[in-house]
Predict the 3D structure of the following.
Amino acid sequence: MNHLLDVLLSTAASTVRGWRGTSGSKQVQPPKRALMLFDREDDAECRLVREALTELNLDVSIIPCPKKGSRFTADLEALSGMKQVPFLYDPNVDYGMRGARNVVQYLFNQYRGEAPPSALLPSLSGVIRSNLAWAVRFTGHLYARPSVEPEEPLTLYGFESSPYTRLVRERLCQLELPYRLINLGKQQWADMGPARMRVKPGKYKPLPNTKRDAFLKQYGKVQVPFLIDPNTDTEMFESADIIAYLDKTYAK
Ligand SMILES: N[C@@H](CCC(=O)N[C@@H](CS)C(=O)NCC(=O)O)C(=O)O
């Protein structure tokens, strides 16, 4: 499908979800060891978990489990006893749980010290709207595509509602490529808008001592998606280029 049309449909998906998964908390309690999420990009409950992770400003190792995929099925079954996603494993306390409601409740209690706000607590209407958000992408389900397994996981910077980042996550999921997802949710008014044309005029200044601040210092701008592939020493912006790179490097 044409990339521009994909971006428009991905924007429609975020709109159906009311742009949940855009803002990132200023209060962050990062876990010592990375949380692991067995995830399917087109699954309604997985989306609700990813929205909460952006809002809590938590990073996570994504283990993609697309339909008809098999690369991580044994790992998922070994940890959870089932093949069902979302399944979150927290190696810091050697504890795992499945289902969006359990996962979101756990994340808020453990990493915010409070119950989740009702807007983020998965409900029946939340799941229905999340399904609808996928439906407006008009792509049907995401099925696994044959791929080469990378030695090291990739790293993707983004946030859940970012229409461009979603397209990259979809391809990572289809190709069953595990990645560290670094959430760069928006933390203040000045973060709003695309990198080149922010809503607030003047020089862009992220909040000091944040992941956005560190990113700006390292890469000269804050724009997502941004992919790092340690297997090929590649770092890149631009969703269309990233997708083409993933296809060229990993699709069989
Ligand atoms: N042409 C770029 C556009 C990327 C873009 O505009 N990303 C937005 C998020 S959807 C962004 O980085 N906004 C700035 C920010 O979040 O600080 C691409 O296709 O990757």
In short: The chain has a mean pLDDT of 94. The first strand starts at residue 35 and ends at 39. DSSP finds eight helices and eight strands in the chain. Residues 3-18+28-184+224-250 form a domain with the Glutaredoxin fold (CATH 3.40.30.10).
